[in-house]
Structures are given as structure tokens and as C-alpha cells.
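Can't paste images in this forum, so I'm doing it all in text. The chain is below; anyone willing to post the predicted C-alpha cells underneath?
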Amino acid sequence: MSRREIELYIEEDRTINLNTKGEQMVTQKKADVLDQLSLGVLVIDLEYQIIHINRQGKRLLQVEGLHLIGKSVYELFPDAPEEVRHVERTVEKLEEVKVDAMPYHWGNHDMYLSIQTKLLKESDEVYGAMVEFTDVTQYYEREQKLTEWMEDMSVNVIPLSDGIALLPLQPILDQIEFQYILDRGLHNVANMNANRLIIDCSTISRVDVVFFDKLSKLIQSLALMGTSVVISGMKPVLATTWVASNVPPMKVQFYTTLQIALRELYQ
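Text version of the structure:
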């Protein structure tokens, strides 16, 4: 079922379905359909009272077995921090929200939720809001581990011998914060007591001007530590981009390949 179909399910029941207390509700037939969804659905009115919540929503919010229709979300979740009350703010500010991975850590909850809110209207008049949410904790944690792995790979300084170390730059370099590269790279070189460092660019095939500014800062920082730098594997496209930029020339030795650089350094 698409997001729009879920909205229509809710909106069609807006004016004709009441429970025994006179509270708005979704018909049992449509409630059964919404209960088959793998994502949670919560619907509230302008008084922040629950119009509907499906089975998955109850499970994720840990409110299974409770009577929820007509109950205020503020009464149901009195201790929930403001930063997770997106559907309430959607009603309050009439602004829809989408968050790919929202930290949901309070009470007994310890997960990341992907959420999207939607204003519900009838004849252009807002009568409530709904939020779709799903547990993305595994995806988020897997992505974080992958990011950490790629960051570690980007500053994988390899000790060689005779005070020489190798830093093979990875294509991920232009996608993460350079401060991380600077801190970890300098720290690794310092721990190895390397006095000469080969920065190999052979796997880098596309960069922007910012790349050369970052590289220049890294070389300057290494020089202040007493480590001289040579660069290997600079592709023609990189050289062309560098020449066209306003980044000052670096006072380092360049070698066509890593093999040539190693041969020259070990002569």
C-alpha cells in the first residue's frame, strides 16, 4: 500500500465513523488492512487525540494491549522528549516533516526511526495529522559501521621501513570531513615516527579544487612535524584540475607511480 493510499484510507473515514463514545475512528475493515502494514501508522486530531494507530505502530511504541482511541498523545507519552514529537508539531505548526533516521532513545525505547508526517485535510481544512514510522536501527547501525570503516581506510597509514610510511588516499576522501583525515592521519604518522611519507593518489580519478586545498594543508601540517612528503600516482586529470585552480604549488617531489617513488626513496 502506498503512502497516498494510506492517507485516503484515513481521510475517507473522517466524517462517517464514530465509536461508542462518539470518537472518530477508522472502520474495522480498513483497520485490519492497516494492521497488515510493516510500518507504523499513528493518526491524531487537532486536540492531539489518537484517531487511529495500527498494530505495528503499537508494537514499535510499546503500547500494545492499551485502549488508545481518543487518548491524548501527551497523556500517553508524558515523558517523551520534544525532539521526537514530530506529529504533534505538524499539527501545531501545520508543517510536514520527514526524518530518515531519528534517534528514539527515551524510557525503554532504544532505536532509530524513519518518520514522515502528513497533514490530513477535508475541503482544504486541516483536521489532524498522521505519521508513518518504521524501525531503521539495523540499517542505521550498519551504515555507521560502513562509514567508520571507510573513514579508517581513508587514513590507513602503512609503515614501511627506514622511517618511510605510505598513505594511499582513497576515493572516499572527498566525501568525509577533512578534519578527521587531518587528525587521524597526523596521529598515525606521529606514532610511527616516520620522517618521510609517500601520499599515493593512484586510486583518485576525480576531484574538485577543494581536494588540493585539503592536500596542501595536510602536507603543511606534516612539514611542521618534521615529516617530508612525496606524492605518487597523480593522474593527468588531477594535474589539469590543479593547474586550473588557485591553490599554490606544493613544495614536494612528484613521482609517476608508487613503484618509482619507492625505488627513488630507497636508493
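The domain at 3-135 is CATH 3.30.450.20 (Beta-Lactamase). The chain has two domains: 3-135, 142-265.
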